[in-house]
Amino acid sequence: MKVAVIGLDGMSWALLAKFFEHDAMPFLNNLLQNAITGVLESTIPPMTAPAWTSIATGVNPGKHGIFDFVVLKHNRIASSLDVHYPRIHEMVALKGKKSICINQPLTYPITKLEGATVISDWLSPKLAYYPKDLEKHYSLRCFAPKRSFPSSLSAMQRNLQVKKNAVITLMNRIDWNLFWIICGETDFIFHKYWIEAMSGKRRIVDILNLIDAIINEAREIADAVFIVSDHGFKRYESTVNINSFLRRAGLVRESSRRKVTELHDFLPGDTQGIREVKLPSRFHRWIQDKPLLKSTVKRIYKFFSRRDLTAECPYPDPELSDAYMPSHSSFGVFLNNKDLAKRILDEMRDLEYLDTVWKRDEVYQGPHVDLAPHIIFKPKFDAGYIPAGTRMTPSIISRGAVFDHHPAGIVAIYANHLTPKNLGIKKTFDITPTILRMLGLPRPIDSDGHPIPEIASHYNTKSHKSFDYSQKWALFQKINLFKKNLVKKVEE
Ligand SMILES: [Zn+2]
Fold it and tell me: 232 CA to middle of ligand 1, Å?
């Protein structure tokens, strides 16, 4: 049995419909007409790192420990060492089957398991892969993290062309039961080139068609193909600045230590908050959507003053504030003064642009809940609200178009004998138990999801046993660490 999973980061059904209108991704379009489909509800927050980690583990962030790209409490980029639960490519290897995993967020440093071929992701400090001899046979430079942030669409297209060929070669030459690849290009395009994507710009269609070629190859080789996204994407008309709200409530101590480039790509309305503006704010607003002019102004300023155009901005001080939102992507508030929890919860629940406000243990369960912000909120996405960044602005609400994540992702499952059907809404946690069932492997003992019944009924294994993957995985991690330390000692 071979299951291929192609992750389309940030894809929604509405976006796909738009792309099909522009004749993009014909293979995917055809596959979907014969697939079981549904909406995949993202994690809270609907962000790439927690969502893909929940998809790949089958558990909520309280169990796997990933709530954001950063470890919010310590304000550093997360790594695989912060992921406290085995992911499906590791589970498959732990049970003696074979997997290939490419660009799953937070794979660096790689947990080395026999049977699991891994190429690290765009969040890695550098390209890493396992097993070591992989580079001998394949050119892997196209997977380097710095290539995930190309300077232009044409650079992205050039790299993806090489990547597509490498992926298809890997898919054909290495034996696998699970093939898992996350295509991050889509998320990048939606953030940066939304208007161009909506209008079916030729180069974007060409990029999507390279991903489509990978999907087509997967359909040729695999017994079942999953198309999955970690969250959707949407155009929003307003940003909600939670730190500004907290400041107004008298809970924030300002810190101006952080500097930003004055002509940085702020969210609309954000520029009002800048202090020590060296340029008139009206000029600021006017120049925001003129990238070429903006970079010219920056360069001219630097040429004459030999300094970057910077401004001091008001941020909440994480130590001295009673409460603060730690990152744009956290959808949460940390409390330094716990006595204020009830008051803040009540006041946030009164905000008309927030849909729901929870205490963290109402959203997350598991041993790592204490890493999450104390209060978690969900904005009224469908009324056009999305959280602003952490920098405070005079007003809480800023108007102006922003393109950002939405909780409704996609899931589609194609296999020869499955009849097309609509599944309604499924959870991120359901993907891993479903794939394990298809591969004839036991489900994890403490999974938060369930095999999707419409699929699982076709893959009735005699045993419905569960297995403690975590325990076995933790043992391998210890061995890995021991070996690494041993090598270090020998080298010393
Ligand atoms: Zn994403």
Answer: 8
Mean pLDDT over 313-330 rounds to 89
Residue 314 pLDDT level (bands cut at 50, 70, 90) = confident
Q: Which residues contact 35 (CB under 8 A, 6 or more apart)?
A: 225, 227, 412, 413, 414, 418, 420
C-alpha 8 – ligand 1 centre gap (Å): 8
Predicted pLDDT at 279: 60
Smallest CA-to-CA distance from 481 within 80, 144, 127 is with: 80
pLDDT tens, position by position, 163-205: 999 999 999 999 999 999 999 999 999 988 999 999 999 999 9
Query: pLDDT band at residue 285, thresholds of 50, 70 and 90?
Result: low
The burial of 54, by beta-carbon neighbours within 10 Å (0-12 exposed, 13-18 middle, 19 or more buried), is given as buried
Q: Which residue has the tokens 């406290």?
A: 84
Helix (H) or strand (E) holding 169: helix 153-173
Report the distance separating Cα 119 and Cα 383, nearest Å.
Answer: 39
Q: What's the 231 CA to ligand 1 centre distance in angstroms?
A: 6
The Å distance, Cα 469 to ligand 1 centre, comes to 26
Residue 465: count of CB within 10 angstroms of its CB: 10
pLDDT of residue 88: 98
Query: E strands of 51-128, at which residues?
Result: 70-71, 76-77, 99-102, 116-119
Q: Closest Cα partner for 266 from 363, 393, 454, 351?
A: 393
Going through 330-407 in order, the beta strands assigned E by DSSP cover 332-335, 354-359, 375-379, 385-387, 397-406
Distance CA 388, CA 401 (A): 12
Q: 418 C-alpha vs ligand 1 centroid, how far in Å? A: 28
Parse the chain into domains and list their residue ranges: 3-231+407-479, 237-403
CATH of domain 3-231+407-479: 3.40.720.10
User: How far, in Å, CA of 460 to CA of 463, rounded?
Assistant: 8
